[in-house]
Design goal:
2 domains; Growth Hormone, Chain: A; MFS transporter; membrane; mainly alpha
């Protein structure tokens, strides 16, 4: 039997295990993607966009719990089994959305389950990659993981469109997502012993437990800018994606066009372009890419009226959002205080969850009270603020050192 000490065998073994890991990650991500169908599903049963936003805000709170305690669960059960437990929660949430399509306490409970499951997976997935892959090759494998997750997220709403096309009710998409989560959970259970073997070869990886003191230290550093930016970017993504079905209905367009264009752009950029972008000046790249997000929001407001313009706006958003995330993720790690990179990345994830799960609550209220146009105006303001932070950092860096020091975080 070949030994793990053999580099050639070890690399082939790692690739095979990582391939199954990517399949499992894709299957779990489908469940989160189906949440973009909640607004349409609830509307069909007398609820509103505000109710869909409330469910997403419930997911935000439980996600915090999952992120904070995932390290303790990993110590007790191991990362793969903890993710498998998260898969069960995701399956239960999707099954609940399928069986109870009306708004109420049950729906809020399923939102809590969704946040717990997704928070555990989103936090521990990269840690498992670090357990399997040596540091020199991790950037490539992180990009592959991100591409698989975005593929799964994009598949969720497309399942809804396919269900409608074949004459099935929308709840069929939630049922399929629940089944995908169960299969994905089984994959992680099977991967557990193999990942543990690779972990012994690749070296120790610690799971971060963040404290208030560590969080305060990170937020007083330059990494705070990237953390704020990912929260704003998450709000833009969450606001547009969670209510894209309502937007498409208003424009009499097919919402699947948005998800196809957006996800194809994000996946392509992260897999093929991100490796080049992250080697460039991150401040300049952030300024350029956030301007694309502003441009895309303006397109959704003023130019989208055909399938072609709808697709183009989605692609521009996907390029800007997909690459901005990669750039500021690197800044969050590189600009953290010495020895606090992991804590900075945990805060980065938490800020993302605040935006992607928390903002839809406000977005739903805005749609109900003021309409879709008002929501797009608010999203434009958020995008402009994000762009202003990126440009401000670029200008700040060009100031003479004595002037820039006045505004430097402590």
């Amino acid at each position: 039997m070949p030994s793990l000490a053999n580099p050639g065998y070890q690399e082939r073994n790692t690739k095979g295990i990582f391939a199954l890991f990517c399949v499992g990650s894709y299957l779990l991500s489908v469940s989160y993607g189906t949440t973009f169908l909640l607004a349409m599903s609830l509307s069909a049963h007398g609820a509103s966009e505000a109710d869909a936003g409330s469910i997403m805000s419930a997911a935000m709170f439980s996600t915090f719990i999952a992120v904070i305690f995932s390290g303790h669960l990993t110590d007790l059960f191991g990362a793969p089994k903890t993710i498998a437990f998260g898969a069960v929660l995701l399956a239960a949430a999707c099954a609940g959305f399928a069986c109870f399509p009306t708004f109420g306490l049950a729906a809020l409970g399923f939102g809590l389950l969704l946040g717990l499951g997704w928070g555990v997976f989103y936090t521990l997935g990269p840690i498992i990659v670090a357990m399997m892959i040596e540091p020199a090759r991790r950037v490539k494998y992180f990009a592959l993981l991100s591409g698989c997750m975005m593929s799964g997220i994009g598949t969720g709403p497309l399942l809804g469109r396919a269900s409608e096309a074949f004459g099935y009710p929308l709840r069929a998409a939630f049922v399929m997502a629940a089944m995908a989560s169960v299969i994905g959970g089984v994959a992680f259970v099977l991967l557990g012993p193999k990942i543990k073997q690779l972990h012994l070869v690749s070296g120790a990886v610690t799971v971060c437990r963040i404290s208030p003191q560590a969080g305060a230290l990170v937020m007083r550093s330059k990494a705070a800018f990237a953390i704020v930016m990912v929260g704003l970017g998450g709000a833009i993504f969450g606001g547009l994606s969670s209510f894209q079905t309502s937007y498409a209905h208003l424009k009499q367009l097919d919402y699947s066009i948005f998800f196809l264009g957006f996800m194809a752009a994000v996946i392509t950029c992260r897999l093929l372009v991100a490796g080049f972008i992250v080697k460039r000046d991150p401040y300049r790249m952030a300024g350029i890419l956030t301007s694309l997000i502003v441009t895309s929001v303006l397109m959704f407001m003023f130019t989208v009226d055909t399938a072609a313009t709808y697709l183009f706006a989605a692609i521009v958003l996907g390029v800007g959002y997909g690459l901005t995330y990669s750039v500021i993720n690197g800044l969050a790690a590189n600009e953290a205080p010495a020895g606090y990179n992991a804590q900075s990345l945990v805060l980065f994830s938490l800020a993302y969850f605040v935006g992607v799960f928390g903002f839809p609550w406000l977005a739903g209220l805005i749609i109900v009270s003021q309409g879709m146009g008002a929501l797009l105006s608010v999203i434009l303001l958020i995008a402009l603020l994000n762009w202003a932070i990126a440009l401000g950092r670029l200008v700040w860096r060009r100031l003479p050192r004595s002037q820039a020091r006045r505004f430097d975080p402590v």
